[in-house]
Structure formats: structure tokens, C-alpha cells
From TrEMBL:
<dbReference type="GO" id="GO:0016020">
    <property type="term" value="C:membrane"/>
</dbReference>
<protein>
    <submittedName>
        <fullName>MYADM protein</fullName>
    </submittedName>
</protein>
<feature type="transmembrane region" description="Helical">
    <location>
        <begin position="33"/>
        <end position="52"/>
    </location>
</feature>
<keyword id="KW-0677">Repeat</keyword>
<feature type="transmembrane region" description="Helical">
    <location>
        <begin position="99"/>
        <end position="121"/>
    </location>
</feature>
<dbReference type="Pfam" id="PF01284">
    <property type="entry name" value="MARVEL"/>
</dbReference>
<keyword id="KW-0472">Membrane</keyword>
<dbReference type="InterPro" id="IPR008253">
    <property type="entry name" value="Marvel"/>
</dbReference>
<feature type="transmembrane region" description="Helical">
    <location>
        <begin position="173"/>
        <end position="193"/>
    </location>
</feature>
<keyword id="KW-1133">Transmembrane helix</keyword>
<comment type="similarity">
    <text>Belongs to the MAL family.</text>
</comment>
<feature type="transmembrane region" description="Helical">
    <location>
        <begin position="133"/>
        <end position="153"/>
    </location>
</feature>
<feature type="transmembrane region" description="Helical">
    <location>
        <begin position="64"/>
        <end position="87"/>
    </location>
</feature>
<dbReference type="InterPro" id="IPR047123">
    <property type="entry name" value="MYADM-like"/>
</dbReference>
<feature type="domain" description="MARVEL">
    <location>
        <begin position="63"/>
        <end position="199"/>
    </location>
</feature>
<keyword id="KW-0812">Transmembrane</keyword>
């Protein structure tokens, strides 16, 4: 329940401001901004609860119950939100690269989740933990490039329109920018935690 609640509140924290905080800003902006802030705090609280109650190191069959497994679910979910906001990116090579990053990382992460649910990870001939560390490192580097290139190509020589409503392209690009940063942080935490689990052994 905590994981589902965290994802739902995270979605609300992204969709609510992009839908109800529009330009020009009226007197209601303060209340809407406060609601967004509280929603973000609720997401952090649920995420902390998930980390405290569901993270338990174990074998591969319980991978989704560990912190890296939960982060994989979060990374795939954020990628789905990014896909829902993508629009008008085919004209610039930098944006096309970013979409390729989102797609490649989502496909691999989704396959990891599916293989875990289907209990197929044990059939992988190479050490799974080290493979995941390598993938997390690669995904992190790819997301670093996307974090730099997406706002660079999206907002270069472009100002926010005076009347930027719910379907404003500028707002969508801003949403993708923040979601990219969120996933970058998720992959960074995933890499650090996975590396610590694989290469740093606690004494018995």
C-alpha cells in the first residue's frame, strides 16, 4: 500500500501544478503552491515509509522488496510520466537522444521487473548483482546527458508564453525536465545502494 500511495501522491505532485498553476498567475497561486508543497512532503513521507518497511536484503526472488527493486519500480513509473508529457521533440537531435535515453532505460528496467515477477532472473548465466550495478552506472550516465540536453534544447532562445495554459508546450518541457532530474536521482541512489550491497560486505 505504501508503494502504491507513494506513486499516486508523486503523480499528483506532478500533475496538479502543471494543470492548475497557469500563467498569468492569479491570487489562487499561493494556495495551489502550498498544496503542491504539501503533496511533495506527503510523497517523501510515503517514500520513507516504503524504505523502512519494505527494504530487506535477501535473495533474488525478493529483489522487488529491496531498495534497488523498489527504485526500479519508481524509475519505470517516472519514465511513463515522462512519455505522457513528450511532445514536439522530433525536430532537434538533442531531444531525440533524450527520448532514446528514456526509452532504452525504461525497456531494460521494465524487463528486469517482469523477469523478477516471473522468477526468471536465476536463469541469467552471469552474476545478476554485478550486471545490475553495470546497468545502473550506464543508465546514470545516460540520464546525466538527458538532464543537460533536454533543458538546453527545450528552452534555448525560448521564453515562457504569457498565456501558458494546461496544454502549453513550455510547461510540458518543464515537467519532463523535473522528471528527468527525479529519475537521475533515483538511478544515482540505486547505483550507490547496489554497489554497497555487492562490493561492501559487512563482517558477520
Amino acid at each position: 500500500f505504501s508503494m502504491l500511495a507513494a506513486l499516486m501522491v508523486f503523480t499528483t505532485s506532478v500533475i496538479f501544478p502543471s494543470t492548475f498553476i497557469i500563467s498569468p498567475c492569479s491570487s489562487k497561486c499561493a494556495r495551489q503552491a502550498a498544496a503542491t508543497t504539501v503533496s511533495c512532503l506527503c510523497f517523501l513521507a510515503y517514500a520513507l515509509e516504503v524504505g523502512l518497511t519494505r527494504s530487506k536484503p535477501g535473495d533474488i526472488s525478493s529483489f522487488l522488496s529491496t531498495v534497488p527493486g523498489l527504485l526500479k519500480v519508481f524509475e519505470a513509473y517516472v519514465a511513463c510520466l515522462i512519455f505522457s508529457l513528450l511532445d514536439n521533440y522530433s525536430s532537434k537531435a538533442g531531444l531525440q537522444w533524450c527520448v532514446a535515453v528514456y526509452s532504452i532505460c525504461f525497456i531494460i528496467t521494465f524487463l528486469i521487473i517482469i523477469f523478477t515477477i516471473g522468477r526468471c532472473l536465476s536463469y541469467i548465466p552471469c552474476p545478476l548483482e554485478k550486471v545490475l550495478v553495470g546497468y545502473n552506472a550506464l543508465a546514470l550516465m545516460m540520464y546525466i546527458t538527458a538532464t543537460i540536453l533536454w533543458p538546453l534544447y527545450s528552452f534555448k532562445d525560448t521564453k515562457r508564453p504569457e498565456h501558458c495554459g494546461r496544454d502549453c508546450l513550455w510547461n510540458k518541457h518543464l515537467g519532463v525536465t523535473f522528471l528527468t532530474i527525479f529519475n537521475l536521482i533515483a538511478y544515482l541512489v540505486d547505483l550507490v545502494y547496489s554497489t554497497r550491497m555487492v562490493f561492501i560486505r559487512t563482517p558477520p
